[in-house]
Amino acid sequence: MDRLDAMRLFVRLVECGSFSAVGREEGIGQPAVSKQIAALERHLGAQLVLRNSRNVVITDAGQAFYESARQLIDDFDAVESSVGDRQQSPRGLVRVSTAPGHGRLCVTPLLGGFFQRYPQVSVEVSVSERPVDLLAEGIDLAIRHGRLLDSTLTARKWSDTDFVLAASPAYLAARGTPATLDDLDRHTCIVFARGRERYPWRFGTGAEATSYLPRGALLTGDAEHVRAAVLCGLGIAQAPHWLLAEEIRTGQAQVLLPALQPERLPLNIVYAAGRRVPMRVRVLIDYLLGQ
Asked: Which domain of life is it from (predicted)?
């Protein structure tokens, strides 16, 4: 048994959650993967995986071993990548966390060029509107909107995000176009909310900054639903410009009260502080920052 190869298979098993998926990825049969993992367990004297007909469950010992094995493989790959013919050839999986809408509209479209440049690197995009725990969930990097409060993360600024108030032409034709903040009281708002907490809309900057608590029939914690609601003519929403950029460009959505645009918020790429960043992760960060 090659212990490094077996460790690689186990790491991918944890990340894929399936013996067959790892086998397809590596070009070997599922029994061969299972045999390698079993040999690794015998060598370690510990059960890493609980097997049944439906899924794979990682034991506590397996989870602890996964964290150490993944770091060891990262270190080994970094040594290989720093010398010889492999100097410019990072490889392996990069796990990225981002919000669903931003991932679909702003991250995935950039990956074609990245894969052409780094054909041995794969990217797993995990989507969530909530901030994830990078270390606990095995995430290499996350894309975060707004100011960062977590001092355990290193951040590199990707861009600034404009927020716009927008509605469809059909909605405005039926309900009129607001000219002041007070006019919003007579309109239907599309409310971004989590649970029962409605997020206020921000307007203006500096001493002129103010907020407005929107009210409406539709509440959602998902940016894609906000976008769909605007385009369906269900009301007015405040959203990051990137969410409706194409529709604003083509006239499917119209920006309202542009003089009251709020302060821009930073968009950051973040990763765990105090840890060596594997080359496969560094090249993805650098690539995104260059777009």
From this structure: Bacteria
Average pLDDT estimate for 7-33: 81
Determine the Cα–Cα distance for residues 211 and 165; give it in Å rounded to an integer.
Answer: 13
The model's pLDDT over 211-235, given as tens digits with 9 standing for 90+, comes to 999 999 999 999 999 999 999 999 9
Q: Are residues 80 and 102 in the same domain?
A: no
Segments forming the whole domain that contains residue 94: 90-156+264-291
Q: Buried b / exposed e across 205-215, counting CB within 10 Å, b at 16+?
A: eeeeeeebebe
Q: Tell me how far apart the 2 most distant CA atoms of the chain are, in Å.
A: 73
Residues contacting 33, CB < 8 A, separation 6+: 9, 13, 19, 22, 23, 26
Question: Is there a single domain that holds both residue 138 and residue 259?
Answer: no
List 153's β-bridge partners, or say none. Answer: 272
From residue 107, give the alpha-carbon distance in Å to each of 41, 44, 93, 96, 117. Answer: 38, 40, 16, 10, 16
Tens of pLDDT, residues 167-205: 999 999 999 999 999 999 999 999 999 877 899 999 998
Q: Between vectors from CA 251 to CA 248 and to CA 256, what angle results, nearest 5°?
A: 60
How far is the CA of 263 from the CAs of 27, 147, 161, 255, in angstroms? 51, 12, 9, 16
Residue 203 belongs to domain with CATH number: 3.40.190.10
CA distance 191 to 211: 14
What is the reported pLDDT for 2? 80
Tell me which amino acid residue 120 is.
Q
Segment 39-50 shows an average pLDDT of 89
Mean pLDDT of 7-26: 80
Rounded to whole angstroms, the Cα distance separating 142 from 221 reads 19
